[in-house]
Amino acid sequence: MDKKVKYEVLKISLLVAFLSAIISFITAEYISTLKGVELRTIDLRFNYRGSVFNFADSSDIVIVAIDESSLDRAPHRWPWPRSYYAKLLRNLKKAGAKIVAFDINFDSPDRNPENDAEFRRAVEEVGNVVLAGREVKGAALKGKIIEAKNFLRNIFIGTMGSHPGIVEVLRDYDGVCRRYVPVFSAGDTVFPSFGLAILLLYYGLTIDSVYDLPPRHPFENGFFKIGNLKIPKFDDKTWLINFAGPAGTFKYISLIDVLDDEDFKTKDELIYGDINTFDNPEFGLLHDKVFKDKIVIVGSAIPEFKGELGDLLPSPFVKDESNLMYGVEIHANAVATILEQKFIVKISGFASFLIIFVISLLSFALAVGVRHLKIRPEFLTEIFGVLSLVLLFALWSFVVIISFNNNFLLPVVSPVLGGAIAYIGSIVYQYLTERKQKKLIKTIFGYYVHPSVVNQLVSNPELVRLGGEKREMTVLFSDLWNFTTISEAYPPEFIFNLLNEYFDSMTKVVFKYGGTLDKYIGDAIVAFWGAPIYYEDHALRACLCALKMQFELEKLRIRWEKEGKPLLHMRIGINTGEMIVGNIGGYGRFNYTVIGDSVNLGARLEAINKEFGTSIIISEYTYEKVKGFFKVREIGEITVKGKTKPVKIYELLDVLLSEKKLVKVME
């Protein structure tokens, strides 16, 4: 290339890369589906990275679980008396726990008021207790501050030694919990989240020590400042939880084992004698330092919903084909992220844009460079172009994974989208500079006919006529039974996907038999044979196509039935006769189609299937062209509106020859 051409290519490359970066950045940022895909790539990164080695033993957090064992072995039925939690607090204090946090609802009094009083005394004695608060979202205080203990649906909040923490966990578009909210606000009141309340106690801080630090430069997202700690923001209101692993990564201890001291009798002990899993001098929890200086979070670990105990939430990690994790462990992961200072740093929007721009530029340059190699045959050029793009994306994926393993979050969807758009831009560039006329014909007729027919039209553009011409042809109309009823029973997205699958299969059949796709009208398909390339056996091809379409639809129904989708049934009408065919339209907008009485009769035959309970009806004109090749059943005669002479019609049933023999006849 000379300097002028190189300069032109450079300008186009930069322009396409810039536009691709803008489009992909905005699209990925504001279309929820793509945002959801980006979030799922985070899940993939977590699962690829795997669990933190030996985390349960090294972590400063222990989960005391209300599990099946606790429910089975406790002498009282659920809900337990509050005296259980008082004993739990005191035993954990004896064992050296630094903080105890209850992810439990205490929104109504105990049946025995003395049990509530006992729990309050235990909270006051132990101190450093975090209690779960709920329902602050969307509250309107109307200038009047409501006391926290009344507002947070926890009757013990306000007790000396207790600290409220909001336990609501944020879910993303797909329901997965990945982010954590540090503070909740209601009117003029600000409450720490459950995890933040634990952290404030751990570091000896108050809510007033939590600050919002804006970004200092374009490559930064800003921070939440807690004392001397700076937590990188994922967005304006959350940080990204650095999950240590799938469900069960933290150390879980059954709550009943912490209660079981010499003063507490489990059901087993009432039968078999004392075991005392808590204070037994040989193996008791009191002596093995499992709680020493630890943060203890108390919560549900019941696998199935049992009233207020149901607390399973989706997480990024998958274990045994499930990504569910107990809410108490999600809080534990959020706290551990800060304690371990394993912050996942998300790059800023500006930095993301630069990355998208660079990848888009590389994508465009690779595509143009491969095409300039002039590889033959020509299809290999596109293959190598796509392979170069795949290689670029694979390289970026490798960078993304390595970065995430080092707690650095890079975008995936927007760079890939930008690269794909830039690659498409390279195709457009080639179209505008090298293949204007041929590409124009392919663009117009690529939707109507098989690629082999398009190639003939590219070689013979004189076959394309604007004004149209009259010739004998065969037209096929198809429609779906009761599709309106089906479409009203399902969401629009589902119907569109189902139709696309149906249209894709049927269109392939039309193309297989040399047909031209006229149009889709709602759920109907219109196709014709005999133009733009004329076939003498156009009627034979249309009938074969109709039978094959019904056969392919039956295959789709078998699969759809297994998938629980509605089963579609199709009616087809076929007629042969003189029609006008051509590109009909105005400046810049054309439709290659057929018109005439013979076309109208084909549409009428499709509709009349309903009256006779048939699937495929052909006219006598089509029958005369194909008799001897197909098995048919004569139905009778109909009179078409506007005509006086009746038309004999037949039901098309099957082929009399094998399809291979019919293909030879067509050849």
Automatic annotation (TrEMBL):
<feature type="transmembrane region" description="Helical">
    <location>
        <begin position="408"/>
        <end position="432"/>
    </location>
</feature>
<dbReference type="InterPro" id="IPR029787">
    <property type="entry name" value="Nucleotide_cyclase"/>
</dbReference>
<dbReference type="GO" id="GO:0006171">
    <property type="term" value="P:cAMP biosynthetic process"/>
</dbReference>
<keyword id="KW-1003">Cell membrane</keyword>
<keyword id="KW-0472">Membrane</keyword>
<protein>
    <submittedName>
        <fullName>Adenylate cyclase</fullName>
    </submittedName>
</protein>
<keyword id="KW-1133">Transmembrane helix</keyword>
<dbReference type="GO" id="GO:0030313">
    <property type="term" value="C:cell envelope"/>
</dbReference>
<feature type="transmembrane region" description="Helical">
    <location>
        <begin position="379"/>
        <end position="402"/>
    </location>
</feature>
<dbReference type="InterPro" id="IPR007890">
    <property type="entry name" value="CHASE2"/>
</dbReference>
<dbReference type="InterPro" id="IPR050697">
    <property type="entry name" value="Adenylyl/Guanylyl_Cyclase_3/4"/>
</dbReference>
<keyword id="KW-0812">Transmembrane</keyword>
<dbReference type="GO" id="GO:0004016">
    <property type="term" value="F:adenylate cyclase activity"/>
</dbReference>
<dbReference type="InterPro" id="IPR001054">
    <property type="entry name" value="A/G_cyclase"/>
</dbReference>
<dbReference type="Pfam" id="PF00211">
    <property type="entry name" value="Guanylate_cyc"/>
</dbReference>
<feature type="transmembrane region" description="Helical">
    <location>
        <begin position="12"/>
        <end position="31"/>
    </location>
</feature>
<feature type="domain" description="Guanylate cyclase">
    <location>
        <begin position="474"/>
        <end position="606"/>
    </location>
</feature>
<feature type="transmembrane region" description="Helical">
    <location>
        <begin position="347"/>
        <end position="367"/>
    </location>
</feature>
<dbReference type="Pfam" id="PF05226">
    <property type="entry name" value="CHASE2"/>
</dbReference>
<comment type="similarity">
    <text>Belongs to the adenylyl cyclase class-3 family.</text>
</comment>
<dbReference type="GO" id="GO:0035556">
    <property type="term" value="P:intracellular signal transduction"/>
</dbReference>
